[in-house]
Design goal:
It is built from six helices and 13 strands. By secondary structure, the protein is an alpha/beta fold.
């Protein structure tokens, strides 16, 4: 059996260590043999089998840090768009995959999934922004990464959400003031608005499914 190589992009934007630890646990609980490494080395990223782009914070700061590491953006693009290997974006990592974000002014994203990052609604005075805590994820479209996870609760921390150009990229939704996409997918690219690494057994199951996924 091939040794699976999983890279977690280290670009100084939040939850990289908890994400890597959760992936190690998911690897242990899977049928796979492999390694999980934190890296911002372009060569290691391009040579990996799976890539995870985590993130906590504001879009502008995170895209600036990612682009500030020599060759990092280009290696993520080559891995994703040329080699077409599986990539998982988490929270800001998902939002970075958009065409652009309107958080802190208009900012260009990676454009892996066409669409914009916009603010959550503020018109419901009973709801607080950021959306923080556990919330139900409802699967819209069956997908290997979401197997066994319909109507499960996951942990969210965000004030903005992804508004894709095409509804077909939405494979799960969540309600908080409005119904918004909580999982998006386009071919080898998948992302969650919630944090699987903070979502206990359901999160580990999702990460295990991702490790076993062959798009």
């Amino acid at each position: 059996m091939k040794n699976l190589s999983v890279a977690v992009v280290d670009y100084d934007c939040g939850n990289i260590h908890s994400a890597s630890k959760a992936l190690e646990l998911a690897m242990y609980e899977s049928t796979l043999n492999g390694t999980v490494s934190l890296t911002n080395d372009p060569d290691k990223i391009i040579k990996s089998d799976k890539l995870v782009l985590p993130g906590v914070g504001a879009f502008k700061a995170c895209i600036k840090k990612l682009e500030g590491i020599d060759g990092l953006r280009e290696s993520i693009e080559e891995f994703t768009l040329k080699k077409r290997n599986p990539i998982l974006g988490i929270c800001i990592g998902l939002q970075l995959m958009a065409s652009k974000s309107f958080e802190g002014g208009e900012q260009k994203g990676l454009s892996f999934i066409k669409g914009n990052v916009v603010s959550l609604p503020l018109d419901n005075k009973n709801l607080k922004i950021p959306h923080m805590g556990w919330n139900e994820v409802l699967v819209k479209t069956k997908h290997q990464v979401l197997e066994g996870l319909d109507r499960k609760d996951f942990y969210f921390v965000h004030s903005y959400r992804f508004k894709p150009d095409e509804d077909k990229t939405i494979i799960a939704r969540t309600e908080y003031g409005e119904i918004f996409p909580s999982v998006l997918c386009s071919q080898n690219i998948i992302g969650t608005q919630f944090h699987p690494e903070k979502s206990q057994s359901a999160g580990i199951r999702l990460l295990k499914n991702f490790l076993e996924w062959s798009p």
